[in-house]
Design a protein that fits this description.
407 residues; Aspartate Aminotransferase, domain 2; Aspartate Aminotransferase, domain 1; 7-stranded mixed sheet; 12 strands; 14% strand; Aminotransferase_I/II_large; pyridoxal phosphate; protease; aminopeptidase activity
Length: 407
């Protein structure tokens, strides 16, 4: 609990909200060298990123079937200021799936922008259910609102799922037909647990004039302590004007990418062999650990969709409500504190992600289970059987005990 004078703040303020799931691994030496080599630079990048960084982003997206030119790219010092600038540049009411990343709703609130959560389909998170989306648009307009933006994720935080192409296509087609512009958060697209079985589809491939792509490089490429994020705008006159407004907002925020971070980010976006090997190895490691956590959650009697991407999964303890109530746990805030105290790591409740307070849901991250020291985490990354390492096995055992305690 934080205090100011004699006033108890509790954990409601935004600053107590969860960060995105951390990679839990030391920075790649190749990128550290790149950052260190630019440490003597005293000026930040220009608003929206310098030419080297933007060219690297173009190459990154082009390799994923999204041809891009530097004048269609904007970079910023972190995901939050870039998303804030994007929302400010587009205007109108915002629709987003529920649950959604913890940072989305505060951005809309900060702008005084009405936002409306839309339930997701049973199969995945990240995208709105088709019929719920259409009904929400109808209701908002009937109440005098102006829905103009849909935020979605093709690979999702907090659920760790990947939207099936047909569900993504249905939702995007309906959104475009209703005149909504789509901001596609593709932060987690390079963290797929089974990359040869799961094909991530960007809405920008299908509706290039109606989709802005947004990515936090901390998803797969760079440490979270090196804040950098990039956006890709449609190659249209409207897209160019929105990019210009976005740059104005980034300038007002002072959200310029630091020169050393820009150098490392550009190197990561170029995807040399060392970077791609680390990305693949990290995704495989987190897939193994997430699979073990998923098994523990189900064995305890809770529910969770199988994780398909990222470093997290979303567990629903609704089936254990009666036993948890006997322990004084009746909502996600109390569940967050209950599990956090037992595990000794943050376990953010579903209310952080726009879910109903009464729903007993939490996000479980895999990063904290990889070890307590850089040496242990690197051992987890390189060992052929990471789940059998003593420090990983102990962390999973603690989780099993915490979730498996009799009610």
């Amino acid at each position: 609990m934080g205090t100011t004078g004699t006033v108890r703040e509790g954990r409601g303020p935004v600053r107590y909200g969860p960060l995105a799931p951390d990679m839990g691994l030391p920075a790649l030496p190749e990128l550290v060298t790149e950052l260190s080599g630019a440490a003597g630079e005293t000026s930040p990048e220009e608003p929206g990123g310098g030419p080297v960084l933007r060219e690297a982003a173009c190459g990154y997206w082009s390799r994923r079937g999204l041809p891009t030119h530097p004048q269609e790219v904007a970079a910023a010092a972190g995901a939050q200021p870039l998303l804030l600038a994007l929302l400010a540049a587009h205007g109108g009411d915002v629709l987003m799936p529920r649950p959604h990343p913890a940072s989305w709703a505060p951005q809309a609130r900060l702008l005084g922008r009405p936002f409306f959560p839309v339930p997701t389909p049973a199969e995945c998170g990240g995208v709105p259910d088709l019929y719920a989306l259409l009904e929400t648009v109808r209701r908002v307009r009937a109440e005098g609102g102006h829905p103009r933006l849909l935020l979605l994720s093709i690979a999702d935080d907090p659920t760790g799922t990947v939207a099936p192409p047909e569900l993504l296509r249905e939702a995007c087609e309906a959104a475009v037909a209703e005149g909504l512009h789509i901001i596609s958060d593709e932060t987690w697209r390079d963290t797929l647990h089974r990359p040869h079985e799961t094909v991530p589809l960007s809405p920008a491939e299908m509706w290039p004039d109606d989709v802005t792509v947004f990515s936090d490089l901390a998803g797969a490429l760079t440490p979270a302590s090196w804040p950098a994020a990039v956006a890709r705008f449609p190659a249209t006159g409207v897209g160019a004007r929105r990019r210009a407004r976005t740059l104005d907002h980034l300038t007002a925020l002072g959200a310029f990418v630091a020169a050393p971070v820009a150098a490392a980010a550009a190197r990561a976006l170029d995807e040399p062999p060392g970077v791609t090997a680390r990305v693949a190895a990290a995704a495989a490691l987190h897939a193994r650990v997430a699979g073990a956590v998923h098994h523990i959650v189900l064995t305890a009697g809770a529910l969770a969709r199988p994780p398909r991407a990222g470093r997290h999964l979303y567990a629903d303890f609704g089936p254990l409500r009666r036993g948890l109530a006997a322990r004084g746990v009746g909502d996600s805030m109390e569940l967050e504190e209950f599990l956090g105290a037992r595990l000794g790591i943050p376990v953010p409740g579903g209310h952080r992600f726009g879910d109903e307070l009464g729903a007993l849901r939490v996000r479980l991250a895999t990063g904290p289970l990889l070890g307590a020291t850089p040496e242990q985490r690197m051992e987890s990354l390189t060992d052929v059987e990471p789940l059998e390492l003593p420090h990983v096995a102990e962390a999973l055992s603690i989780l099993t005990a915490a979730l498996g305690e009799p009610p």
